[in-house]
UniProtKB/TrEMBL annotation:
Its EC number is 2.3.1.180. It comes from Paenibacillus taichungensis. Pathway: Lipid metabolism; fatty acid biosynthesis. Catalyzes the condensation reaction of fatty acid synthesis by the addition to an acyl acceptor of two carbons from malonyl-ACP. Catalyzes the first condensation reaction which initiates fatty acid synthesis and may therefore play a role in governing the total rate of fatty acid production. Possesses both acetoacetyl-ACP synthase and acetyl transacylase activities. Its substrate specificity determines the biosynthesis of branched-chain and/or straight-chain of fatty acids. Residues 110-188 form the Beta-ketoacyl-[acyl-carrier-protein] synthase III N-terminal domain. The gene is fabH. The active site is at C116, H256, N286. The keyword Protein biosynthesis does not apply. This is Beta-ketoacyl-[acyl-carrier-protein] synthase III. It is found in: Cytoplasm.
C-alpha cells in the first residue's frame, strides 16, 4: 500500500443508547449471576436501544458526530458503508436510509455483512475506493442492535451482547500517516457456529421459525472462543508483517470487545502491556460491528492516540470472519 495515496481517519463519532442493562438486571431474567458473567466475559453492563430506535438511528447519531469532527456535512460525502448484521430491514440498506437522513445526496451507499469484523472490512473497502481515485472520502460505520436478535431466555447468549454505533470519516491524510495494511479473511466452513438461521431465503419467516427461535442468535461459544484466540494471534502477526512492523511498534491495540479472556490471550501472545490495550467490554459488552469503532473512537476521545502513533485493530466474528488493520494515527 506504500506507493498509493495515503488514506486514514479524518473524523470520529460514537453513540450508545441511554438504557443500561446490568448484570444484576439479567440475574432477574435468567439463571445467571454477576460473578459468572464478570469472571467468564469481563462484562458488567451493556446499552440497549429504545423500542423506537433502529440500527440507522444509532448510526445516524454516530455519523453526525464524525462529520462534525471532520468539519464536514452529509452533502460532502462520496460514499457511505454501514457494517451491520442487524439492518433496519433486509432492504433498502441501512446505508441508504442513512444517506437520506444525512442529506448525502449523490453519495453511493451500501451495507456490508461481516458481523464483528464488518468495520475493518468496511475500512479496507473505503480505503481501496479512495486509493483508486474513485472517491475522495467515505463514512464508514459499524452499527448493530443485537438486542433485537437476542433471546433473553437463553443465558448462554443474552449476557454477552449490547447495542451501539461507531463511525469514522475516511479520507486523504498527510504522507506517512493512514492505513498501512489490512488482513481480511474468512472460514465459511465454520458459519453454523455463530448464526441466525431464520428470515433469509433459506428459511423465510413463518410461524414455525418464530416458534423454533430461528430469528435469534445461535452461538457455539466454546468453538467460537477457540477460533477467536487463534485468529486474533495469526491476523495480528500477518497484518504487522504486511506493514513491515514488529509487535513492539504497536502503540495502541484495539481488539474486538467480545470477551476479556480473548483480549488477554492476545495481549499475552503479543506481550502487550495493559496501557497499550483498549478495553471497554465491561461497559458495552459485545456490540458486533460497533465494537471496534466504539473502542477506537473512545480511545481517541480520551486522548490515548497522538498523531503518528501506530494503532492495530483486530476483530473476528460470524462468517466466520476476521479483519485486522494497522493505522498510523
Ligand atoms: O463476536 C462474536 C464472537 N463471540 C464470542 O467471542 C464468544 C466466544 N465465546 C465466549 O466468549 C465463551 O465461550 C462464553 C462466554 C460464551 C462462555 O464461556 P465458557 O467459559 O466457554 O463457558 P461454557 O460455554 O463452557 O459454559 C460453562 C458453564 C456451562 O455449564 P455446565 O454445562 O458446565 O454445567 C454453562 O451452562 O457455564 C454455564 N453458563 C452460564 N452460567 C451462568 C453459560 N452461560 C451462563 C451464564 N450464567 N450466563
Amino acid at each position: 500500500m506504500n506507493n498509493l495515496r495515503p488514506v486514514g481517519v479524518i473524523g470520529t463519532g460514537k453513540y450508545v443508547p441511554e438504557k443500561i442493562l446490568t448484570n444484576s438486571d439479567l440475574e432477574k431474567m435468567v439463571d445467571t449471576n454477576d460473578e459468572w458473567i464478570v469472571s467468564r466475559t469481563g462484562i458488567k453492563e451493556r446499552h440497549i436501544a429504545a423500542p423506537d430506535q433502529a440500527t440507522s438511528d444509532l448510526a445516524y447519531e454516530a455519523a453526525i458526530k464524525a462529520l462534525e469532527s471532520a468539519g464536514m456535512t452529509g452533502s460532502d460525502l462520496d460514499l457511505i458503508i454501514v457494517a451491520t448484521i442487524t439492518p433496519d430491514s433486509s432492504f433498502p440498506s441501512t446505508a441508504c436510509i442513512l444517506q437520506d437522513k444525512l442529506g448525502a445526496k449523490g453519495a453511493a451507499a451500501f451495507d456490508l455483512s461481516a458481523a464483528c469484523s464488518g468495520f475493518v472490512y468496511g475500512l479496507a473497502t473505503a480505503t481501496s475506493f479512495i486509493q483508486s481515485g474513485m472517491y475522495n472520502n467515505a463514512l464508514v460505520i459499524g452499527a448493530d442492535c443485537l438486542s433485537r436478535i437476542t433471546d433473553y431466555t437463553d443465558r448462554n447468549t443474552c449476557v454477552l451482547f449490547g447495542d451501539g454505533a461507531g463511525a469514522v470519516i475516511v479520507g486523504e491524510v498527510p504522507e506517512g500517516r493512514g492505513f498501512k495494511s489490512f488482513d481480511l479473511g474468512a472460514e465459511g466452513a465454520g458459519g453454523s457456529l455463530l448464526q441466525m438461521e431464520g428470515g433469509g431465503s433459506r428459511l423465510p419467516a413463518s410461524v414455525e421459525t418464530v416458534e423454533n427461535k430461528k430469528h435469534y442468535i445461535y452461538m457455539n461459544g466454546r468453538e467460537v472462543f477457540k477460533f477467536a484466540v487463534r485468529v486474533m494471534g495469526t491476523a495480528t502477526i500477518e497484518v504487522l508483517r504486511k506493514a513491515g512492523l514488529e509487535r513492539t511498534d504497536v502503540d495502541l491495540f484495539v481488539p474486538h470487545q467480545a470477551n476479556i479472556r480473548i483480549i488477554q490471550s492476545a495481549m499475552q501472545r503479543l506481550e502487550l502491556p495493559e496501557e497499550k490495550v483498549v478495553v471497554n467490554v465491561d461497559k458495552y459488552a459485545n456490540t458486533s460491528a460497533a465494537s471496534i469503532p466504539l473502542a477506537l473512537v473512545e480511545a481517541a476521545e480520551e486522548g490515548r492516540m497522538k498523531a503518528g502513533d501506530t494503532v492495530l485493530m483486530v476483530g473476528f466474528g460470524g462468517g466466520l470472519t476476521w479483519g485486522a488493520s494497522v493505522l498510523v494515527w
